[in-house]
Amino acid sequence: MGSVMGSMTDTLTLAVELAWWQQTGIRAVVGLLAVLLPAGTLVYLFLFKMMSFMQSRLGPMEAGPYGSLQLLAEVGKFLQKEDILPRKADRVVFKAAPFVVLISTFLLVLVIPAGPDAWFIDVDTGIFLALAVSSISVIGILMAGWASSSKYSLLGGLRAAGQLVAYELPLVLAVMGVVIQAGTLNVQDIVMSQANGEIFGWGGIGNPFILTQFVGFAIFLVAVQAELTQPPFDMPVAESEIVTGYLTEYTGLRFLLFFIGEFATAGIFAALAATLFLGGWYVPGLDPTSDLFNVIGPAILLGKVILVAFLIFWFRFTYPRFREDQLQQLAWKVLIPLSLANIVLTGVLKVVF
Amino acid sequence: MTALAALEGMDRLTSGEALVAQNVAFAIMAITMVVAALRMVTTRNVVHAALYLVVVLAGVAGQFLLLGAEFVGVTQVMVYIGAIVVLFLFGIMLTKGSFGEDDGVSSEKRLMAGLVGLLVFGVMAAALVDSFEDAEVAREAPSTTAEVSDSIFSTYIVPFEAVSVLLLAALIGAIVVARKD
Fold first, then answer.
1. Does residue A127 lie within any of the structural domains?
2. Do B6 and A132 make contact, defined as CB atoms within 8 angstroms?
3. Total domain count for chain A?
4. Structural domain span for residue A236
5. How far apart are the CA of B111 and the nearest CA of chain A, in angstroms?
6. Domain annotation covers residue A39
7. Which of A46, A216, A348, B55 is most exposed, with minimal Cβ within 10 Å?
């Protein structure tokens, strides 16, 4: 890709001209890190520590200082566990299911930019691509639920599919407001329009869309919570009703893959929310085209991800589980009409101003 | 900077090197799609058939991307893989009594199905060959999302609205059929 490479090398101010396959290799490695590092951070920071403090206990303390190596211990534990395949399971589908979920996660991370030139793919369809690939995970979950040949798994899979399909709509519709305001689907351009935006002529802090799209932000977070099948929307894995739903028959590495997928997706959705509503890799006070952002952008983005993830996990640890019918009612009767009203209002205001 | 801006200064797209890469990618995807499509109609397991369909549809999305029709490719993933196949799987799993192999896929309708398939293939092939013959696809100008939306909401506004009304009617019809009271 001619000029892409040109802009890469121009702004990196490196003398090396990287071949396309070398760039692709670097992007693949960085993509892997961009999925796994935030996932590990979230698990340690929120699942191990914040949840413990909220429940007046210390959480893991033994492995490393403040239990910071607990994550490695957990991975080691899962790797040692016996790999069990149910006798009646559909072997190929059973084994493939966690990877389908992970494929969706790894495709999701591609659209998130971490600086003016630090991106994986800079595509025109941007956020639309993200929402499309996020729906692939439903197939993985249905595969897991069906292939386990266990009624709990099947029920969990069906619940998950019903839930994910229902909450996909508010998720997409909540993003629409941002897309209308920015006038583009391209994620990089959405960040730029927030960085260059003005609030009634005052451009001091740009115009992060959370100010004008607060309703969209709230709907997006609720829908993300449901997409992640986390409490209060964890009916697909409700342990008091259907054991652990579609995860029931999974052990060891395969369970770990689902687990990583869940938290990596949480991190990536938080990154999407940060990019769409909080200005992404941009902080006020600097020129958004400055090369500096290629270096500090990822750190700024991670900071915002942790901020959004804090909200996501806060809800996770504090709310009790919904009932299945309440869940569907919330999606179809509250969130979707609300997001449609938001779109209409945004459209009208966009034309007026 | 958009993908289009990236493509404008691009001579690699029309150069021989890029074409070879495109053809190789096309061949890999096409072979996968044909194999998956054959397995889809020959497998005796309904869920497997639906999963093979996912492979075929993903291949279609890949072929759209290869042709530079990015928006259509992503829509393909969103609508067909993310919604329609999910509903297929959902329906199968809700209604199927047992797991694993089953011979519920009746073989008596195979002849008719094969006949219909052959007919559709013949009509499509004839129509495509007749209307395009040896015309080349414009390679240097991939369609952007903005172009797609502009043409939908200007040139094709009437068909677009007609389709919208048709879908709305289908939606309301489904509710009317499903409601008991």
1. yes
2. no
3. 1
4. 81-352
5. 29
6. no
7. A348
